[in-house]
Design goal:
With about 160 residues, this protein is an alpha+beta fold. It is built from 4 helices and 7 strands; from the N terminus they run βααββββαββα. The strands form 2 sheets. A 4-stranded antiparallel β-sheet has the order 1-2-3-4. The chain has a 3-stranded antiparallel β-sheet with strand order 5-6-7.
Length: about 160
């Protein structure tokens, strides 16, 4: 199973970037004297950073965010300039859960959290149906009566 996060994530990220830029511009507007060199410089820098984030950074970050869940491992990769890839072996998955927040109710998305002994993956902004399929796919089918990875002598199960 392979997929991407919802397109609504891009809308949320861009709205948050716009709100942060408006807040920065308001602070600059009220704290510095109007028409000074630093006033213009900071307003132009705020606008440049906003345009860079809205039209380059956030869309490319969205395009590079994906998850892969096959029979061997679960992987979540994201990033634009710095790429991060987190991989968990399927046999090491202890549990998987689905998180619903007030924002996810409005957007009709969910976050799937996958936990193992050494790592945790949180895949945000998944459509509800994709999140339910992924959760059902990742939930262990047998109870863990004995260690899944190592036997009592310390040898690895294959």
């Amino acid at each position: 199973m392979e997929g991407k996060i919802s397109r609504k994530a891009l809308i949320v990220w861009e709205t948050a970037a716009f709100a942060a830029a408006c807040l920065a511009a308001a602070i600059i507007w009220f704290l510095l004297p109007d028409g000074s060199f630093f006033w213009y410089l900071l307003l132009w820098l705020t606008g440049f950073v906003l345009v860079f984030c809205e039209f380059l950074y956030l869309p490319l970050r969205y395009e590079n965010t994906l998850y892969i869940a096959n029979g061997e491992y679960v992987e979540y990769q994201r990033g634009f300039l710095i790429f991060t890839r987190t991989r968990i072996l399927r046999r090491a998955v202890l549990y998987a859960s689905m998180v619903r927040t007030p924002l996810s109710l409005l957007l009709r998305t969910r976050t799937v959290v996958i936990c193992s002994m050494g790592a945790r993956i949180a895949i945000p902004f998944l459509p509800v149906k994709d999140a339910e399929v992924l959760l059902a796919n990742l939930t262990p089918r047998e109870p863990a009566l004995q260690p899944r990875i190592f036997d009592q002598k310390g040898k690895c199960h294959e």
